[in-house]
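Aim 2 progress update. The chain analyzed this quarter is reproduced below.
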Amino acid sequence: MPQKHYENFPVASFLLPAPLRRPVSVIYRFARNADDFADEGALAPEERLRLLDQYRTELRVLQQNREPRSPLFESLATVIRAYDLPFEPFFDLLDAFAQDVNKRRYAHFGEVMDYCRRSADPVGRLMLHLYGAALKEHVAWSDSICSALQLTNFWQDVAIDYRKDRIYLPQDDMARFGVTESQIAAQDAGGGWPDLLAFEIGRTRAMLQSGAPLAKRLPGRIGMELCMIVQGGLRILEKLEGVRGDVFRRRPVLRPWDWPMMFARAALTR
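Predicted structure tokens:
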């Protein structure tokens, strides 16, 4: 099920030390493939869950130090053993993707954050293990960054997700600002919509900035890579504000001319 994906933040970019690019790419392939099982194509829910269960089975094979049965998991086994990676983040990712198959609405922000804890935070935790920097304080900062980036993607993709019958905006926030599902269906960015998006953008930015000190703690190119990722998230949030949350007509994405600005900002924060 190969898919082409727009990515806000390139994977295994030139800023990463060369020895880490292949391990990062292997982890990304695992996560991307599993996410596609849950999200892409016209598969029935039962088939999506079956494919995710196959990945769980393959992970358990690796946990038991048995030989993997597919090229991807052969590569993943090599990375896990070389860097002594924990298995929990991989299982958390699969749990989040399985949740996407069945759960379509989120009652409050706590539910959304619980999803982020399993869909986004594991990636940051795995990266810290690759860097040999999985200290408790570092993990907390990483979780803030990763959850904020996931939220940024949710606000950016409201229209795209709605076409898949998913709304990640908390239902209680929508009610507070007088926004209804029918308004999303009509792609109506009027009424309370700008205020709702401004509220979500504000707390997402605060979360992203609260994790930003991690970039100063990580050395060299790894720290600069993380600075660029943080700046990319902040830039998308700026663009969301610039269109007053009207992602229906002007979905913000990073353009080539954004990267010099992000690099300059990242250099200043280092």
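The chain has 14 helices and no strands. Confidence is low (pLDDT under 50) at residues 1-6, 8-12. These observations will guide the mutagenesis experiments scheduled for the next reporting period.
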